[in-house]
Write a structure and sequence with these properties.
The chain is mostly helical. It has helices at 3-91, 93-106, 111-118, 122-132. The chain has four helices and no strands. The radius of gyration is 47 Å and the shape is rod-shaped. 4% of the residues are buried. Keywords: Membrane, Transmembrane, Transmembrane helix.
């Protein structure tokens, strides 16, 4: 073999190696592009799930705010009803009398004092005392 033939053979061998390397690189690029496409698909799916969860969270926030407002309204209504109930209780002379007797017993009044002040029979005064009286 002549030196030119050796150089040409070497060049052909180098060209074949370079072609094989380029082909290998193109395959790796193609594989990487397919992998990147797969990751992009997964990312899109995750973004959709995140959006749905954000919408659900927003709905929960809105409903909890509405529920809070509803609870505040019910509390106001309950206070109003309680006040009206107290007013009605104060309008009934018997209820007012018993309320005064209970208050006096809680302040430490004796059965006799309650009987005199509230004009209650002994049995009623003693019953109230047993329920509401101060135990010292």
């Amino acid at each position: 073999m002549t030196p030119i033939e050796i150089v040409l053979a070497t060049l052909m061998l180098v060209c074949l190696v370079l072609i094989a390397m380029v082909w290998h690189l193109f395959r790796r690029i193609s594989d990487n592009q397919a992998f990147a496409g797969s990751l992009e698909d997964k990312l899109g799916s995750q973004e959709e799930k995140l959006l749905l969860q954000q919408e659900g969270l927003h709905e929960l926030r809105v409903s909890s705010i509405g529920m809070g407002d509803r609870i505040k309204g019910l509390e106001r209504e309950l206070r109003t009803l309680h006040d009206k109930q107290l007013e009605l209780a104060d309008m009934d002379p018997d209820t007012r009398l018993y309320s005064h007797a209970v208050k006096r017993l809680q302040q430490g009044a004796t059965v006799e004092e309650v009987m005199e002040e509230c004009e209650l029979p002994r049995a009623e005064a003693e019953l109230l005392f047993s329920i509401h009286g101060k135990n010292e």
